[in-house]
Amino acid sequence: MCGIVGYIGKEKALPRVLSGLKFLEYRGYDSAGVAYVKNGNVEIVKEVGKIVNLENKINYSEETFMGIGHTRWATHGVPSIINSHPHRVGKFTVVHNGIIENYLKIKEMLINEGVNFISETDTEVIPALLNYNYNKEKDILKTIEVTLKELEGSYAIGIICDDDLDNLYAARCGSPLIIAKDKTGNFIASDVPAILSYTNKYILLEEGEIAKISSSNVEVYNNKLDKVEKEEMIFEGSQDSAMLNGYEHYMLKEIHEEGKVFSETVNYYVDGNSFKNTMPEFKDYKNIHIVACGSAYYVGCIGKSLIEEFANIPVTVEVASEYRYKKNFYDKDTLVIIISQSGETADSLAALRKAKEDGIDTLAIVNVVGSSISREADYTMYVKAGPEIAVATTKAFLAQATLLSLLAVKLSNKLELLNEFVGVEKYIKEILDKDYKKYANVIYTHNDTFFIGRLVDYALCLEGSLKLKETSYINSVAFQAGELKHGTISLVTDGTPVIGICTDESIESKTISNIKEVKARNAFVIYITNNDIEADFYDLKIVLPKLHKLIMPIVTVIPLQLIAYEVAKLRCCDIDKPRNLAKSVTVE
Ligand code: G6P
Question: In sequence order, what are the residues at sequence separation of 6 or more whose Cβ sits closer than 8 angstroms to the Cβ of residue 150?
Fold first, then answer.
C-alpha cells in the first residue's frame, strides 16, 4: 500500500527511483509520481495508472541527482493526477505512505492562515504544515520535528526542501521506511526489494525518527532531535528471490517455492525429534486468541483447529479490525498470537498494541524480518517464506500454516509428532507438478462459485474462495458444508461450480452427503480429497496424498492456489497486482 523510493547520489536519480518503484508495485497502487531536482528547481511529474504511464512522461536522461518517487493507493480522494504524490506546498515537496487522521483539523487551521489546497488528500497537509512551521522555525530539522508532533495517524514520508537541495529528509511513524547506501549514494524506500539491485545493506528507521540524507552521509535523529546510532541490517535473500526467474507471474513462482519454504520453516525450528532454541519456551496458557486480517486470519482458523485438537487449548480466531475495538476476555493465562506476512498491517499492529497495553503475552508470527509487529511482540517467530511479491499471498500462507502446526506440537508436548514433518517436501512437489487447467476451464466462465467443507477443511475453503475472488474477480462463497442448505443453496443452479473439500475421514460421510445435496441441484462438483474413492457425486476429483492431520491442511491449500491462478490467467486478470488490492495494508 503506497510505496516510497528516494535517491540522492552521484548517479542519475530517475532511473533508480523508477526501477525501485517497480519493485514496490506488489504493494498495490493506482497512480504514481516523482519529484526531482533540475537546475536548482524541484520538478514534479505524476500520472494515473501503472508506472509505465508515468515513465512515458519522463525523460530518463535528465541530469538529476536527487529524486523521490511514490506509488499511491487511493484512500482520500480518487486516483487522479492532482491527488497523486508528490505534493508540494511552498518550499516543501513530500511523498507519504499512511494516513493523517487529523488532516481536516490541520487543513482548516491552515486555510484560516491563507494556505491554498488543491487536492482531496490528507497528505497535502504535510507539506503545507511543514511550510507554515518553517516560516517560524527557519531550521529544516526543527521544522520537521515540530510538524511531526502535530500529525496524528501513521506515516512514512520523504521530504525535499527548496532551501536545502543537498539533502533528502525522511521520517517514520507507523509505516515502514528503510535507508540504504551503495557506493554511489543513498536511498530511502518502503521495502527492501526496491534497493536490492544496488545493495543488500540497510538501516530501519524506528518510530518517531527523522533522517537527513546527503549523497555521502546519513544522520538519524530521535523525536527530540538527539542523534542516534543505527545498526546496519543485511538482507539475507538473493536478488533472485525478488525476481521472476523465468516464471510468468510472481504468484506462480511463489507457489512453486512452497516445498522449499515448508522445509526451511521446519528446519529453522526442528532438529530431528526436538525443537531448536529458535522455538520459544511458552508457559502453560489456558486459552489462545489468534488475531489477523485476510489470509492470515484464515490460516489462524487452521491454527485453531490444530492447536485445539493436539494441544487441547481453546483458541478463538478474531479479525484484527474488530478485535482492536471490541471487549476482549483475556488475562495472564491468555496468549495473543498475531499473524501477519508483512508485519505492518495497521489493524493487526493496533490489536497487538492493545493486548500489550492490557498486559497480555503476545506472540508474532511474521514473514518480514524487522517489521513493526515482529519488533513489538513479546515473542516473535519468523516463517521462512522469503520475500513475497504477488499481492495474493501463497507461500507465506503455507509457511504460516506450517509454523502453526509446529506450534500445535510444541504446545502439546508430544515431540514424537515431529516425525510427521519428515519427507513432506516430496509430496508438495507431486502436488505442484499436477496440471490444474482442467479445473480452471470449468470455473472461469461462471460468475459464482462455492467452496464447502467441514472443520479444518472449511478454513481451507475460506482461503480457496478468497484466492479465487482476489485473483480472478469471480464471486465466491465458502460455507461450512452442512450450512449451505440453510438458505444459500438457492444460488446453486445448473453447472454452478462447487469445490468440495474433505481431508478428514472422521467427517467424510457427512461432507459427502452435503456434496450430494448440491450435485442433486446439478452443480458441477470438483472434489478435493485424500481418499481416492470412485463415486458419482463429483464431476472432477483432485486426489491428495494421505498425510497426517498436522500436515494435511498445509498441502491442501496448494491446489486451491493453483486453481485460482489458472482461472485468473484464463480471465486475463492482472494476477500479481489485482485491482483495488494492496499487499501491505498500512491503514485501518
Ligand atoms: C492484505 C493482503 C492479503 C493479506 C492481508 C493481511 O489484504 O492483500 O493477502 O492476507 O492484507 O496482511 P498481512 O501482511 O498482515 O499478513
Answer: 102, 106, 129
